Amino acid sequence: MNFQKLVFKFIIVLTYLLRVALLVLPIALVVVITKEGGWKYGFTFIQNSLNVAFFVSFAIGFLVSVYHAVSFDEVEGAPDQNYMKSHQVVHVSSDKEIQEVMDWIVSNEKYKDARIENGKIYAKKKVHFLSADKVEISKSDGTFTLSSRPFAKWWFIDFARNYKTVKALAKFIKLNK
């Protein structure tokens, strides 16, 4: 890995760490400030202070961000512009027809609510404990555009789930597997 790529990944992970920490900080502040006195049951080292809330939010942000980065690096093959994004878009060239892809999606138990509208496939990919991810497939001039995104725009950490979705679709379209 070259130095530029290392710096790029470091900056992306750092921004995710800050985003998660800022998301957790209000909850940590409420929990820490509403406690009266030291924490009971052996946690006397935790006192009521803003430093504890900042530490807890940073620690949770660090763990989630690093796990997200490791999950994404584990999948391999993602273009740099898609690194750690939850909304994934990939282009694949193939001579397959859109109906063949639709038949495969309908036969796959991981997808639901598949339909074709205006020459595009819209489907939902099942996710454990969350709402389904939104999948969109279109074809133009022999090139498929595969898109997968979480159920909500504000959901920015998906542990490479959407990239795995577009990668599996691309593998079927390209290699029929």
Structural summary, described in words:
α1 (3-34) runs antiparallel to α2 (50-75). Helices cover 47% and strands 19% of the residues. It has helices at 3-34, 50-75, 98-107, 161-175; strands spanning 88-93, 111-117, 120-125, 133-140, 143-149. The protein has two domains: 3-75, no CATH class; 85-175, TATA-Binding Protein, CATH 3.30.310. By secondary structure, the protein is α+β, with helices and mostly antiparallel strands. Strands 1-5-4-3-2 form a five-stranded antiparallel β-sheet, covered by helices on one side. It has four helices and five strands; from the N terminus they run ααβαββββα.
Q: Please, how many helices?
A: 4
Query: How many E-type strands?
Result: 5
What's the structural domain tally? 2
- Taken in chain order, the helices and strands follow as HHEHEEEEH
Q: In which range does the helix fraction lie?
A: 40-55%
Instruction: Give the CATH topology of the largest domain.
Output: TATA-Binding Protein
User: Any idea what the CATH architecture of the largest domain is?
Assistant: 2-Layer Sandwich
Derived structural class: alpha+beta
Taken from the alpha-carbon principal axes, the silhouette is elongated
Largest sheet: 5 strands, antiparallel
The CATH homologous superfamily of the largest domain? TATA-Binding Protein
Distance between the termini: 30 Å
Main sheet: strand order: 1-5-4-3-2
Give the low-pLDDT segments.
none
Q: Under the CATH scheme, which class of the largest domain?
A: Alpha Beta
Instruction: Classify the beta-strand content into a percent band.
Output: 15-25%
Mean pLDDT, all residues: 84
Which radius of gyration do the C-alpha atoms yield?
21 Å
